[in-house]
Amino acid sequence: MNPSRRKFLKRGLIGGGLLVLAGTLPFAFRTTALGRRPRRELRLLSLEEHAVLAAAAARLVPGDGAGPAWPTAEAVDCAGKVDALLATCHPDVGNDFRRLLRLFESGFFGTFIAASPRPFTRATPAEQDARLEAWRRSRFTMLRSGYQAIKRLTHAAYYSSPEVFARVGYAGPPEVPQVPA
Amino acid sequence: MVRGEQSSPAPHAAKPPGRIIPGAELGAMSAHEVDFAIVGSGAGGSVAAAVLAAAGAQVAVVEEGGHYTRNDFNMQEAWAYPALYQEHGNRTTDDLAIMILQGRNVGGGTTVNWTSSFRTPAPTLRLWAERHGVGDIDAATLEPHFAAVEARLDVGPGNPDDVNANNRKLMDGAAKLGWAPELIRRSVKGCARLGYCGMGCPLDAKRTSRTTFLADAIADGAVVYSDCRVKLVETDRGRAKAVVAEVLDRASDRPRGRMIVHARKGVVLAGGAINTPALLLRSHAGNESGVVGKRTFLHPTVPMVAFYDQPIEAFYGPPQSVSVHHFSNRGARVGYFLETAPVHPMLGALALPGFGDAHRRMAERLPFVQATIALLIDGHHEDDGGDVSVNKDGRISLRYPLNAALREAAIDALGNMARLQLAAGAREVVTLHETPIVIRSEADIARIADAPFIANGHTMFSAHQMGGCAMGSDPRRSVVNSRGRHHQLENLWIADGSVFPTALGVNPQISVYAHARLFATAIAQGAAAEPAR
User: FRET pair for A34, CA 20 to 30 Å: which of A50, A179, B355, B496?
Assistant: First the structure.
């Protein structure tokens, strides 16, 4: 076993083991529902990974209860923005996130965590929310961490979008004149 | 000689000014030779460059981040956090429990800090003297350096006109409870109180290292290379010889070349906590003590939000103008101090727990949110802080356990922040546990202690990173001496917040500048007597 993997597992039997497990789920994306095509050319994520992230983003941002004035995650291209950001990060960061999405999508893994046997992209909205909640409240640090990774990247992309500013009562920054360089 | 002072040592012949050279101007391979190579252009690196260049040395500053000026600062979170912060705004502890805001650009943390200016507290200096072998730095030692730094950064008395509604609530609540709120001194000149300090000041009203000491260094001939990430310090027989850097393509942040800067006289590391220890570890150099990276401190920060009936609009106005140090000394327990944080949409959304409509119901009340933060003062008791390491690919890892002492302090702070906001007239106060606790009266506060405070169970972040290359007199327990000189590498110095043996207990910029100036002055005096090798 190479030293970096050994150190990774040492972080917690469950924690390190989970991402190792993700790597052994080769068929996690076999039944992924791809949904709408990405709005921009992807730089890191595969089509399947983008689909999982887009499906999660749709549940993480304000939903139907918010009313039609709130943009959807797809309208502000949350998943595409996250892809573009991760493509500039250390390659390990992007690879870890891709493995996380594989785990999140997995119907096999979902059965144990949230009693939800369907791939995330094929689950009902209520089942999707249940899986997000299960990770959010899990007693396992790695799952809570995994939820936070997906949530933070999604919310950062969504709430930094100018289309959302009016919804949160923010008028945006003031005009400041540019000066000669 | 530093700008505005009497000359000492003797003035040198004027050199042509240097400049900032972006990575895009460098070829695939380049080599440079100077007297001093300085890694990092933030508070420590800039003042070290200014002192050494003014003393006649040929200086190169090598900065990982990009060079941005006021015209680039568009006050948009979507641009600012990826462009100006470490790991594109995504730096965290290993378990993601603590989000780490740390600058990465020409100017470092000073480009994105909230201008708060405090001298190193006397109790902290005493602690360092009594328990960490830093016996010759006291207030008198630092006084000329504090004075010079504050003058150059236009740090004036705290201004009541700087107090926005967000800070007013902190002041009012603390005053009612007898907790002695104070106005914060700020490093600004001509501030228009826009509120975007954390995204780069579009007016250059914030006095940053780029607009002050780095500019001074450049005027005295220093060259600054931006978009150059130092990967290694080369050493040979007990001396630092050069720094080797990847030249980065700014758009993709991927290496497009390499450069080496040979240092005839010495190397100064000033990339900041986390980064400087990681650089030494990657270089397999300078860790004879075995303590490089250990005792890394974060002022782990616990936020709390209060909702008011009237608009607070915590996204406008100076982010910080009031502080409360009533709880800094809690005897044997971890202390903390209270300030505010700005609440722009993205930062606010990241802090608020939950998702979907539950999250939205808080986010849409943003204009009515007041945000108080408690900064835990780590490292002053038996807590050992965090541990920086690097993997085989050079990726930095920071393990920071939330031990019982920190959890106790966090829970105590949440209770007191709630009391403060209720005293200031909040309709309700809400903790940022994943299951928030809503507090409308003193009777509700007891429920905070019943809620588990666990990693990723409550929002936490860090805006101050310290330690990891502690100064001290014992080479078995410290990395540098009390003038920043490495115990084993005779011509390597560290001049950033990583030298602090514990967390400071106040916002760090003035301490970093002043200690770096103290160290650089000693370097310049020594270098004047030593030949280059």
Answer: B355
